[in-house]
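Folded chain entry
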Amino acid sequence: MKQLSKTQSLIFATGGILMVAGAFMALFRVSYATLCFAPGVVMFVSMQMLQRYEGRNINIRRLRRYMLLSDVLLIVSALLMYASDGNPFQFDQITYVQYIGNNWVVALLIAALLQLYTTFRISKELEKES
């Protein structure tokens, strides 16, 4: 895996902290939770996209695709969190509750589980490779 520079690692860690802080603020109904969560997602996902794997190990490539799926789910959760803040898209009440509501939590949970799994498995595969 391509290593990040010190600046990129700082952006990556800051994005992760902002995501966690934004998710906790959303639990306590803080109005600007989305303004904390969404930039954190952008920072985290963009730095994770820079970590490329140029090797030939099929398992790591597969796990990397799972990680990219997780990144997409993080972006979807940020969009759903924004949409759940007071119905900004002006959906009728039934559509809003049925499709948006607090579904950002489900997308975030799936993304977090995929991130956790792929992080540990990629590190194990890289140890076996070297």
Summary: The mean pLDDT is 90. Residues 58-84 form the longest helix (27 residues).
